[in-house]
Amino acid sequence: MNCVGIKGTSRPTKADVARLAGVSTATVSYVLNNVEGQTISSATRAAVRNAAQKLGYRPNLAARNLAVGGSGVVLYVVPRIAVGALPMEVGSRLTTALARHGIVLSLQFETDDGRNVVDAIADLNPVAVTSVFPLRGDALAAITAAGIPQIHLGSAQLHALGDLHLTVGVMRVDHLTARGHRRLAFAFSDIDELRPLGDYWLEGIRVAAHRRELPEIATGTFSSDGTGAADVVAAWAGDGITAVCAQSDEAAFVVLHGVREAGLRCPEDVAVIGVDARPLGAVSVPPLTSVAFDPSAIVEASVAAMMTELGYPIEHEPGAENVAKLIQRNST
Fold first, then answer.
1. pLDDT band at 324 (very low <50, low <70, confident <90, very high)
2. What proportion of the chain, given as a percentage, has pLDDT over 70?
3. What CATH number is attached to the domain comprising 290?
4. pLDDT tens digit sequence for 148-176
5. DSSP secondary structure, 279-329, as one string
6. Fewer CB atoms inside 10 Å of the end CB: C or N, the chain?
7. Which residues, in sequence order, are CB contacts of 210 under 8 Å at separation 6+?
8. Which residues pair with 72 in a beta bridge?
9. Which residue has better confidence, 84 or 43?
10. Residue 232 located in a structural domain
11. Is residue 318 part of a domain?
12. DSSP state of 125
């Protein structure tokens, strides 16, 4: 599971139009893409168009072509890094959903130079490119030059699930403060492709900590092989930090390694909590407290969000109820 909204762009988005018009992003897609079969009042249609005009928002032409039934190809880029089974499950579901509209999903596996994606854009002339994380380098340059929309699976699914980072942030911070922790830190993975996801989870932790009037969250990056982990953990403990929220269970395992190498105890000296609830967490030392997600709900929301972004109507908008739950083990 995107899966990560990327900030820092001044270009108005569909979400901006939806907020200004007071409607859902799906309604914005239906109105601006002229999707038939939707019961939308003339007043609502006018509000959406006025909001789009005021913000200077224009729907992508490729998405519009899909919305009116044009056939073609959508590229789906699978990352090299291990991010669990969800991307493949989403890809499978998306293949079926797009096929109903005459669209073929072409699976592309990420490479160092992005050459296969560049070639696929030239050879297949796709109407859109989807991916777990934002593409970079030559692949991104080719997408930009071709004027093709890039839909990030991570950002789409997380948006569809609402403010999931805030929900998980409150869940983790409340769990730790209930155990007397007030000085918290956040552990990043050193995998660059995962940084947007780490920033996403950190924002939720910071918002929850601010509401609890906790001190500023310390941050650190942990090498996947554990190099230097003990130094970071020891420095945190020396500064009075007693609990660490990791950006993933994998990062949490490295933090636990650092705790042991630093001669500290978990949770007595430093508590650790992850997110993803990987099965190995049950047999880590100590067993890892984490946040688990309902895979079915994540997949349903991800596919629905991506279909909406492509301009297609969906049967219903999935909610975010009961998507996440805390799995309490011995690390906290």
1. confident
2. 77
3. 3.40.50.2300
4. 777 765 554 445 555 778 889 999 999 99
5. GGGGGSSSPPBEEEE-HHHHHHHHHHHHHHHTT---S-----TT-EEEE--
6. C
7. none
8. 103
9. 43
10. yes
11. no
12. -
**AA letter at 312:** Y
Radius of gyration from C-alpha coordinates of the chain:
21
CA-closest candidate to residue 311, choices 126, 17, 112, 61: 61
Number of domains in the chain: 1
Supply angle C-alpha 108, 10, 248, rounded to 5: 50
Per-residue buried b or exposed e for 174-186, using 16+ beta carbons within 10 Å of the residue's own CB = ebbbeeebebbbb
Joined tokens for residue 265: 């105890």
Cis ω for the linkage preceding 118 (within 30 of 0): no
Amino acid, res. 70: G
Residue 253 within any structural domain of the chain: yes
Beta bridge partners of residue 130, listed in sequence order: 76, 151
* Contact present, 246 and 252 (Cβ < 8 Å): yes
> What are 207's two structure tokens?
């918002």
End-to-end CA distance of the chain: 24
Tokens 């959903």 sit on residue: 97
Polymer length in residues for the chain: 332
Q: How many CB atoms lie within 10 A of CB 318?
A: 20
In the Cβ-directed half-sphere of 188, how many Cα atoms lie within 13 Å? 18
The per-residue DSSP string of 81-123 comes to S---SHHHHHHHHHHHHHHTTTEEEEEEE--SS-HHHHHHHHH
Residue 223 lies in a domain: yes
Where in the sequence is the domain holding 194, given as residue range(s)?
164-294
Q: Check if the beta carbon of residue 329 is closer than 8 Å to that of residue 281.
A: yes
